[in-house]
Amino acid sequence: MATKKSVPFNGTEEQKAKLLAVIAEQKGEKGALMPVLQKAQEIYGYLPIEVQKIISDEMGVPMEKIYGVVTFYAQFSLYPKGKYNISVCLGTACYVKGSGDIYNKLQEVLGIAGGECTADGKFSLEACRCIGACGLAPVLTVNEDVYGRLTVDDVADILAKYE
Amino acid sequence: MADINVKINGIAVSVPKGTTVLEAAHTAGVDIPTFCYMKEINEIGACRICMVEINEGRGFRMVAACVYPLNFENTEIRTNSPKVMDSRRKTLELILSTHDKKCLSCVRSGSCELQALCNEMGIDNESTYEGERPTFEIDNSAVHMYRDNNKCILCRRCVAACAKWQGVGVIGANERGFKTNIGSAFEMGLGETSCVSCGQCIAVCPVGAISEKDFTDQVFAAIADESKYVIVQTAPAVRAGLGEEFGYPIGTNVEGKMVAALRRLGFDNVFDTDWGADLTIMEEATEFVDRFTNGGTLPLITSCSPGWVKYCEHYFPDMTENLSSCKSPHQMLGAVAKTYYAEKIGKKPEDIVVVSIMPCTAKKYECQRDDQAAAGVPDVDYVLTTRELARMIRRAGLKFTALPDEDFDDPLGLSAGAGDIFGATGGVMEAALRTAYCWLSGNNEEVVEFHEVRGTDGIKRSTVTIGETEIKVAVASGLANAGELLRRVQSGEEKVDFIEIMACPGGCVNGGGQPQQPMSIRNFEDLRTLRAKALYDEDKAKTLRLSHLNKDVQKLYDEFLEKPGSHKAHEILHTTYVKRTIN
Questions:
Q1: Is residue B119 scored above 80 in pLDDT?
Q2: Inter-chain contact B170–A52, Cβ cutoff 8 Å?
Q3: Which of B146, B186, B314 to mutate to test the interface with A (most CBs of A within 10 A)?
């Protein structure tokens, strides 16, 4: 069993103070965990073990319960966005044109699963639904850059541009 | 509440308004199968195996019997109609579609609730729904148990036991949908978490997804090794539970047959942990009287339950000074076996193997702790649960029910009734109070029973007056209760001098290593009370009921340890604790 690894945590004291204030406001309320997690994600951008630990200690809720909620809802992420966020369209048109293979290839090359971020914080990978560029299917974006009419062989060239 | 009249499968019954369909059916003598339902602590209606047809005046529809309350006169319920049976089979087939179905090699084969129900419902195809099956790595990281999620049916009973009974909550459901799995935060192995090893999760698991680490092969090998002198000892609660593995009613004391079975398995000595319990009382009562009269750290808290000790270290690290420094009874017996007794029989401690049969999985972890090795080798080499002993007896082909009743060996086999009741919540406290009463009152042979500390309430309190002295005592079982009590003590809301804590609800009789009873029994019978009665009856029937009058314990002090609390006693019978964090 391997504990999930994320990128090194760079939380600031300011962020922590904000989180503690949110918890102080919500503590004791029934069903407080969801709003606290939502705010925590707003503050940090994601919910790594360090943030969940603060919430667990301050709210007296076992860490596993928090982790269970975080992994249940798609709105929560255990990983930050990388410097370059790669978003692969798995909408119908792109998928039919083979974006699934491209998505798999990226996971393989980057060594991460969808939703995760590489340990150096450089690339994060996610799947998205139709971005309205079906004419270019299959499509992916890297931050604001759009790449279309792709094949699996294009993956290496695209990544190389950001090295 | 007022009674209402309902019909279950056409039979009229009258039940209080608000009764669940499941309970009403039970009253009417009808079983409805359940997987996820645990009375009071897991009423989540999640597994859907208990679906029944109900008509509250607007036609029949399907509801979950475990959580559906009966509120209307003349409600009709069908628990075994074709539609219900069909639903039950479909649910089973869907559960099987993500199950590994390796019954032949499964530890729970024969006692598995899923296997039994599939058989009952006539499931003739194990693979109705072919397709992808989630596969999981087995978690072997904990000292005392493993988790194999390939067998898990996601009933969440383990999760409820851990969070609600024990207030620990290190396991839960992660991810969702097809990927849902029971595990710990951030995929930590159980061994990395603040799991206390109590094994209550194992005791309630309907299938073979979680089980103790089995050491029966190692024990068989030790017995077969001619160079080893193999000593076995059994905890009080084992005799009150073991019979269930061989068809005896819950609460049958099978001490005599258990001893006979152990002798036939080939152990060189069959000793009684109850003797170790009497010895524990000598040390612990001395420690209490010393702390109480000399202004030591109070409350003193018992240390017999290793699940509790680990909980204290993780969750109340500031209170480890309150823990009695006494080793637990089986560790004490092991320590004496490898020092005093080893000398007597002319054996080297490293040639002696001590095997403890315990109702407990935390003892597996305890025997590997630091500072549990009086003779320089571990006091106890192997801990087996009651269930593992039953496996050994079956594997060796012993006809348990046909065995004669035999007695424990001397000199570590004689015990007072006070030692017997160690297996039930309040028993350690009562045993200690009986002896403390004699010492403080000067009446060395008067047996006083302390009924206020008996029974299955989660927290019990009593004030004991001995002469001019008033002692405030409290007893908690189930770690959620223990946590509640300790928070009150820490905040100063409650002042107590002496506390007994047992990790498992009801104490060791309901330990995580005891025979697993299906939830269809546990939801309606109180295992804790039935098994505890066997121990209180044994105590009642004995003439020797005070630990300090155990002549073999007295002899140990005369010949070897000098007196309770002596320097030598501390070296051999006491231990130390560490402060841990919550993970």
A1: yes
A2: no
A3: B186
Whole-number Å distance between alpha carbons of B199 and B265 = 26
Q: The complex's ipTM?
A: 0.91
Kindly provide the residue ranges of all beta strands, DSSP E only, lying in B398-468, ordered along the sequence.
Answer: 459-466
Residue A2 has pLDDT above 60, yes or no: no
For residue A63, the chain B residues in CB contact (below 8 A) are 185-186, 582-583
> Residue B430 contacts by C-beta under 8 Å, 6 or more apart in sequence?
B418, B421, B449, B450, B453, B454
Supply the range of the domain harboring residue B55. Answer: 3-93
Residue type, B147: R
Kindly state the tokens that stand for B16. Answer: 């209080």
Instruction: Tell whether B131 and B58 lie within a shared domain.
Output: no
Closest CB to A65 among B141, B172, B175: B172
**Are B73 and B135 found together in one domain?**
no
Cα separation of B532 and B253, whole Å? Answer: 10
**How far is it, in rounded angstroms, from Cα B79 to Cα B23?**
12
Please tell me whether the overall predicted TM-score, pTM, comes out greater than 0.90 for this model. Answer: yes
Main-chain phi, psi angles of B139, to 5 degrees: -90, 105
- B111 and B68, same domain (yes or no): no
Residue A11: CB atoms within 10 A of its CB come to: 14
Helix (H, G, I), strand (E, B) or coil at B37: coil
Structure-block tokens of residue B362? 């935390």
Please name the member of A1, A56, A66 whose beta carbon is closest to the beta carbon of B188.
A1
Q: Is the pLDDT of residue A3 over 70?
A: no
Give the pLDDT band (50/70/90) at residue B19.
very high
**Do the beta carbons of residue B264 and residue B398 sit within 8 Å?**
yes
Q: Are strands B51-55 and B75-78 parallel, antiparallel or unpaired?
A: antiparallel
Report d(CA B43, CA B28) in Å as an integer: 21
Are B566 and B322 contacting, i.e. CB atoms less than 8 angstroms apart?
no
Amino acid at residue number B102? K
Model confidence pLDDT, tens digit, residues B65-90:
999 999 999 999 999 999 999 999 99
Partners of residue A147 on adjacent β-strands: A140
Q: How far apart are CA B25 and CA B48, in angstroms?
A: 17
CATH 3.40.30.10 at A84-160, yes or no:
yes
